[in-house]
Design a protein that fits this description.
- The structure is a single chain.
- Helices cover 76% and strands 0% of the residues.
- It is built from 15 helices and no strands.
Length: 411
């Protein structure tokens, strides 16, 4: 019996044992969740819709709708009542979440994904409980809020450190780093905005409850998938966990971008808003670039194949033609700018030359990493340079509308 227990701790499990160690808590949790949802639906039918002012104030997202959030709050009431009877300090529950997350980090670093995932889910539940108990007992304070916020960052960081250790020799390490960065940026943007007086309603695709649920459940359930697909692999990649990490990375950065745009709009209401399809939009600027690239390529092929021009000279002519098409299209269609063409042309050359240098230099740097395909490096760099350099400078520098003259006071 002791040998079996030690083998379980070390992870020396058969494929069937790997499935059950991950599935047993999942089946129990699914049963509890389905039972709670059914009971909640019946409760609403007999006694009217359940409301929770705190939950409703926080709002909902497409990942966790308001009905699910209310259901969770209602289902947690017995546990909240039990903790209230024990008079456990909310700060103790806050620090408990850090202990659970530390255990989760060690577990996933050792490859025990099921154990680590469920510990991380438990740590996330503590984040709900400490705040609810503090507000119910009227001991909530700014110092407690600071402690809770800092511990939440440690909790998020702990699980990603564990995942980074497990994936230290695989490409997934990059996704883990991006997920960690995004998870830190989401609360930072909000905190920075609130410090400047911006009130954030429910802004963001994936807030912390969504990130905890997606990451915790995907990591916890990943051994089931691996035991079915690769039962003999002693160190599988855990595909479901990888999917959860990538989803958290993508949604966290999108959420931080949404909050950043919202904060800038609130702080500078006169600033033109980002458009996706209309005049000055990202889409129009991207289409102008695509048209220029197509013209460049077609002209090079024509000059080399039909006119038998040397490839270097044909490439030079193609680049000039593509740049001309891109400049005219952006000036007339994308931004409909009426500034002097000479000034815009000079600025366009500056942006184009710097863009070419950034693209070539960053691709060269990215290719320093082993086993990175050139095509992938090219696409990643092009997308980043376009989003952070080309489009913002085209909109605000090359084709920017002239500033309106300041109104003078009448004496």
């Amino acid at each position: 019996m002791s040998d079996a227990f030690l083998g379980w701790l070390r992870g020396d499990l058969t494929p069937a044992a790997r499935i059950w160690t991950a599935a047993a808590p999942a089946l129990l949790l699914i049963g509890l969740v389905l039972g709670a949802m059914a009971a909640f639906a019946l409760r609403n039918r007999w006694r009217g819709e359940y409301h929770d002012a705190e939950v409703e104030h926080r709002g909902s997202t497409w990942l966790l709708g308001m009905w699910l959030r209310r259901c969770f709050s209602w289902a947690m009431q017995p546990l909240v009542a039990l903790l209230l009877r024990t008079r456990l300090p909310p700060a103790a529950i806050t620090t408990l979440s850090l202990l659970l997350a530390s255990g989760a980090a060690v577990a996933v670093a050792a490859g025990r994904m099921a154990l680590g995932g469920w510990l991380f889910v438990a740590a996330g539940m503590c984040d709900f409980l400490d705040g609810r108990i503090a507000r119910t007992t009227r001991v909530a304070s700014p110092s407690g809020a600071v402690l809770d916020s800092v511990v939440d960052r440690y909790v998020d960081g702990a699980i990603f450190i564990g995942l980074a250790w497990f994936y230290r020799d695989r490409w997934v390490l990059v996704a883990v780093g991006l997920a960690l960065l995004g998870s830190m940026l989401v609360p930072y943007v909000r905190a920075k905005g609130e410090a400047m007086g911006v009130a954030f309603p429910n802004v963001g695709l994936a807030q912390r409850p969504e990130r905890v649920a997606v990451l915790g459940l995907s990591v916890a359930l990943s051994p089931i998938v691996e035991a079915i697909l690769v039962p003999g692999d002693p160190r599988p990649i855990h595909r479901l966990a990888v999917g959860g990490i990538i989803l958290v990375a993508a949604t966290a950065h999108l959420t931080s971008l949404q909050r950043l745009v919202y904060a800038r709009s609130a702080l500078d209401p006169d600033r033109p808003r980002l458009s996706l399809v209309g005049r000055g939009s990202v889409l129009r600027n991207a289409l102008a670039g695509a048209m220029a690239t197509a013209c460049d390529f077609a002209l090079v092929v024509l000059l080399v194949s039909l006119l038998e021009l040397s490839p270097p000279l044909a490439t030079l002519v193609g680049c000039a033609a593509g740049a001309t098409v891109n400049f005219v299209t952006n000036r007339v269609w994308t931004f409909a700018s009426r500034d002097l063409p000479v000034i815009q042309g000079a600025r366009y050359l500056v942006v184009s030359a710097s863009s070419a240098a950034l693209n070539s230099g960053l691709v060269a740097v990215l290719l320093l990493l082993p086993d990175v395909p050139y095509a992938l490096a090219w696409m990643i760099v092009r997308a980043l340079v376009f989003a952070t350099w080309n489009y913002p400078l085209h909109r605000d520098y090359v084709f920017a509308l002239p500033a309106a003259p300041a109104e003078q006071e009448v004496p």
